Amino acid sequence: MSRESSGAPEVGRSLTFRLGAGLTLLFIFTAFLSLFWTPFDPAAMAIADKLQTPSLRHWLGTDHLGRDVLSSIMAGAQTSLGVALVAVSVGLLGGVPLGLWAAARHGWVDEIVMRTNDLIFAFPALLLAILITAALGPGAMNAVTAIGIFNIPVFARVTRAAALALWQRDFILAARVAAKGDVRISVEHVLPNLLGTLIVQATIQFSLGILAEAGLSYVGLGAQPPTPSWGRMLSEAQTLTVLAPNLALFPGLALTMTVLGLNLLGDGVRDWLDPRLRETRRS
Question: Most CB atoms within 10 A, among 134, 184, 232, 275?
Fold first, then answer.
């Protein structure tokens, strides 16, 4: 029976998914476009053109150093995408195997993995990132390290919880009867059934990674000049809000729309993978 005939809507028909996908693709396209082209050099200063309002030459105006705001936002998308992508990858590569291992072995292995997770969770994400970057020094790579470390227990906990439920299923028992070991069962049977859950969690952590990078850059612990960053743009604009509100407005909108798009995308994928959630929202 097809998905349509069973009453489950196709993912492409979901307004939430389409809006989230559109905003996310716009963010990704902007980041990749900035690799090859921006209206002006994001790092080029022109003091004579400082604090200009939006015009045909500078569509979003210029900052206090005469840098083009649109170019800085485009290049800042590249920074946010790179940091969040690597941080989520670190979380997946470190957390998923730990979660699968804990669910498969139980006992002391499960206890050590989960108590270590609890220790990391005792610190708020941004505070943990600040502690790590303060110890290692400011910079985009240290921000990636900090955010990635926090993502590991997140993915480990999600993977373990979902895997424990799967280990009770009949197809796992059949795999055991076929003399398959725990590692083979985890890779061949458990992991493929977790992909939907992991995709949804990855979109959530991606948006949180962008916020964390912006927060670290805001306090001076993220990407350092001349690397553009939305968080640092907001930090530099806070004393010029009355004089040049566009300096805070446009980076803030870029950050808000990107995080909103990723969250909507995650909600759309989750509703598609679990039609019961969609029916609950409709009722």
Answer: 232
Does the domain at residues 84-282 carry the CATH identifier 1.20.1250.20? Answer: no
- Which residue matches tokens 């055991």? 176
* b/e code 117-134 from CB counts within 10 Å (16+ = b): beeeeeeebbebbbebbe
What is the domain partition of the chain in residue ranges?
84-282
Helix then strand then coil, % of the chain, to nearest 5 = 75, 0, 25
Q: Which two tokens stand for residue 176?
A: 């055991």
pLDDT at 283 over 60: no
Q: What is the mean pLDDT of residues 152-156?
A: 93
Whole-angstrom CA distances from 181 to 96, 185, 194, 244 are 18, 6, 19, 64
Whole-structure pTM value:
0.86
